[in-house]
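[Primary structure, fold]
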Amino acid sequence: MRITRLTKYPVKSVAGYDLAMATFGPLGIDQDRKWAVVYGSGIAATRRELSRLANLHAVCTDFGISLSFDGERIDVPWPSGAPTTAYVFSTKIEGVQDAGNYASHFLSSSLEREVRLVYMPDEVTRSVSSAYTDRPHATGFADGFPVLITSMPSLLALNAELQQPIEMRRFRPNIVIDGAFEPWAEDEWRLIRVGTTILRVAKPCERCVMVTQDPVTGEQTDQREPLMTLRRLHRASNGKIIFGQNAVVEVEGTAKLGDEVEVLERGASNLI
């Protein structure tokens, strides 16, 4: 088994970019989802309700972040203003920093919605659910966990049942693994080594309407697929539709394309 893709998503729900090598800290890939677009209420925007986020691109820089939309680009420095509050679903995150009016104007004009850009500084801790880990772990603005792992055998199994095959980017993984193993084998992984990094698989990733959207345009290509087929192929005992596994970082390190992936611990399927 080997790593075939590493992807960083600097801003929640915004297009990511691929890496040849990634550094994994306690919050996953360095600077992954440390930024978020938020509404006036502080609630983080997602492509579930704001599909134009698919057309926004973000790249981390030495000074902050570079944002581009439809040929227009701005560079946003690390914020230094007064702390504010953001929300991911019902989770309240205090101490995030607003990136200022210039970034807000650019994003509001591009997205056609009044929004602001916020950053989660290192001193802010957002804990993952303790129900799925045996010790404290944290994440950035991801839905719930810092790392998402998917496998090519599972995508091939799904595509074999779809009339229109889809690309892995719909599922927004940080790590894609390929090799001579069975589809859905990742359900039994508990601890894996990727490069010099060790990841603990925490829980299956529940899928939502975002996977029915083209990840490049945000257009909903099919109101039912691939969710309808996934519901038949790979559903948890609680009825949730699953693709991929959420993980936390047990040992910080690096990983690069082509690195071997070693399963250190296995267990029964965590869909049961």
About this structure: The longest helix spans residues 101-111. The domain at 2-11+22-27+131-266 is CATH 2.40.33.20 (M1 Pyruvate Kinase; Domain 3). The mean pLDDT is 96.
